[in-house]
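Dear support,

I submitted the protein below through the web form. The confirmation email said the job was done, but the results page showed an empty box. After a refresh the structure appeared. I'm attaching both so you can tell me whether what I see now is the final result or a partial one.
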Amino acid sequence: MTGTLTWIAVGLLGAIGSWARFKIGVLVAARYPSSVPLGTLVVNLSGAFGLGLLVGLAVAGDALLLVGGGLLGSYTTFSTWMVESQRLADDGEWGPMLLYLLGSMLAGLAAAGLGWLIGGAIS
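What the results page shows now:
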């Protein structure tokens, strides 16, 4: 793929990833109301798994840029995770905040590792 087409594709996949993040986050939050932002948690964990899978499959070059950076990079969200954590703290929800922060990190590492292992087994 040429340079300009690659970046256009990254932008388009980024739009799709952002839309998917929003839709999945809203659907999960509506179905499972909780003081812990489960929609963002589901999105970030599934994105971590997807990125781990790409690494395990040894995806590289433009394909990694397009899927890893464009699609999954826009699908996952560090900033929303931080803002939601801050909101929990502002509301005095210290237990849920700590669970959300630490659980996201540990489960995210586990999801990425699982994806990596499965990708490695497949390739």
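Response: this is the final, complete result; the empty box was a page-load delay. Residues 3-31 form the longest helix (29 residues).
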